[in-house]
Write a structure and sequence with these properties.
It is built from two helices and 18 strands. It starts with a helix and ends with a helix. About 15% of the residues lie in helices and about 45% in strands. With about 280 residues, it is α+β, with helices and mostly antiparallel strands. Strands 3-5-1-9-7 form a five-stranded mixed beta sheet, with no helix packed on it. Strands 12-13-11-15-17 form a five-stranded antiparallel beta sheet, with no helix packed on it. The chain is rod-shaped.
Length: about 280
């Protein structure tokens, strides 16, 4: 090998990698995470493309953080990419902004994957127990209220400052929702439901409060009436159901037949006549 060939070979070895690097296409993708309830859990996010060479395909990410993916070696305008994430039990995942088509060389994208907790249904069973006859004569009016430390869909907040409104007897900041108020259901057994947003840290504690108009009605809600009797978890595996039992002990009033009523009227008239004669 002569000296000129050696020089050419050395120059090629020095220049060709640089030329190859200059011809490499590249695109970047910045992905952020937003748990709307500020959950601190880490989730794996993955960038998939129909072509190209991802430098890193999956990365771990947590709330308010972001990660960057780089894809190289693709034909400009011919690559599509999208982001998916691992399982997030109890949450909906919105990555609708994390999908791109016909990506050009040098493009830079950013998006956010948003996770929202899924409400869990709470069921409060209403059970009437009528002991004796004449139970239909009680006042069937009652109000059943669900109170939670977290959001109840369709409910409203109640705090210490709300002293004069409907939730004045609750302590601290909470949510409440009236499950039933009225008499239209009478003394029928009914289930009532509400959707509660679970707290990622320990679940959402709830309890049930009931007002019954008739003093003859005994209320048994021992598995419902304390904080934590109902505990709503993200995976739906908490204590999400309880029963409020209303018991009425009704002895009834003895009644007389038509003949008995007639005899009673005659006796009363006789007693009245005797009394009148004595006064005269």
């Amino acid at each position: 090998m002569n000296f000129k060939r050696i020089i050419i070979t050395l120059l090629a070895a020095l220049l060709l990698p640089g030329l190859a690097l200059a011809q490499t296409t590249q695109a970047t993708f910045n992905v952020a995470k937003d748990f709307v309830d500020d959950n601190t859990a880490s989730v794996e996010v993955t960038l998939d493309c129909n072509t190209g060479l991802p430098i890193t395909q999956s990365q771990s990410i947590s709330n308010t953080q972001d990660v960057t993916f780089i894809v190289e070696d693709f034909e400009s305008g011919a690559m599509d990419c999208w982001v998916t994430e691992g399982e997030t039990t109890g949450y909906t995942s919105d990555a609708s902004d994390c999908s791109w088509e016909a990506i050009d060389e040098g493009a830079a994208y950013e998006c956010t994957v948003t996770n929202t907790p899924i409400p869990v249904q709470v069921t409060v069973n209403k059970d009437w127990v009528i002991d004796g006859t004449g139970g239909d004569q009680i006042d069937p009016y009652y109000t059943l209220t669900l109170v939670c430390a977290g959001e109840i869909e369709g409910g409203q907040t109640c705090g210490k400052s709300d002293y004069y409104d409907d939730c004045s007897y609750y302590y601290g900041d909470s949510w409440y929702k009236t499950l039933y108020s009225g008499t239209s259901n009478g003394t029928s057994d009914e289930p009532y439901t509400a959707d509660v947003v679970p707290d990622w840290d320990g679940g959402t504690d709830c309890y049930v409060d009931e007002y019954v108009a008739d003093s003859a009605v005994e209320v048994d809600a021992e598995d419902c009436d304390d904080w934590g009797d109902i505990n709503v978890q993200l995976d739906g595996a908490g204590d999400n159901e309880c029963t409020v039992t209303n018991t009425v002990f009704f002895e009834g009033i003895p009644t007389l037949s038509q003949y008995g009523m007639a005899i009673m009227a005659l006796l009363m008239l006789g007693v009245g006549f005797v009394g009148f004669r004595r006064l005269v």
